[in-house]
Amino acid sequence: MLKRCFPPVTDRETRVLILGSLPGEASLAAAQYYAHPQNQFWRLAGALIGVDLPGLAYPDRLACLQRHHIGLWDVVGQARRAGSLDTALRDVAFNDLDHLIAGLPALRAVAFNGKTAARARRQLRWDGAVLELPSSSPAFTLAFAAKLAAWRGILTFLG
Predict the structure, then answer these.
(1) Mind telling me the catalytic residues?
(2) Where are the beta strands (DSSP E) in 24-113?
(3) Alpha carbon distance 17, 8 (integer Å)
(4) Rounded distance, CA 134 to CA 87, Å?
């Protein structure tokens, strides 16, 4: 089945762009980034900015990220995939990351959420800071504290 990403959540004040791979089944069904209840994205991002993001309604989560100069998108624009695992991605069409980045004058860093997303780095002509973060996915079983320690690198670029 062909799956498509969501529109980017960015504005001219975005300083850090976090890029995932492609929304999973729970996210596509809910039409929300990181909707799977075991995905740790909202906990991680909330811990970084000191806000209980999981406790907010989805539109408020996105607005809060933007107030803190964090943007979201995916490296994959569309692909075929049975289920939610990145290893099942087929017939991948990548998003035009360079075009999006060209419209983000305040951008200081691009952060890839997981190894699959980070593989798109070779297509990126961005010469600024790049972070490769441990995946927030429940399929990546690194402890939350270890993930958060790596994700704290984002803070350098938000100030």
Answers:
(1) 39
(2) 70-74, 76-80, 90-94, 109-113
(3) 10
(4) 16
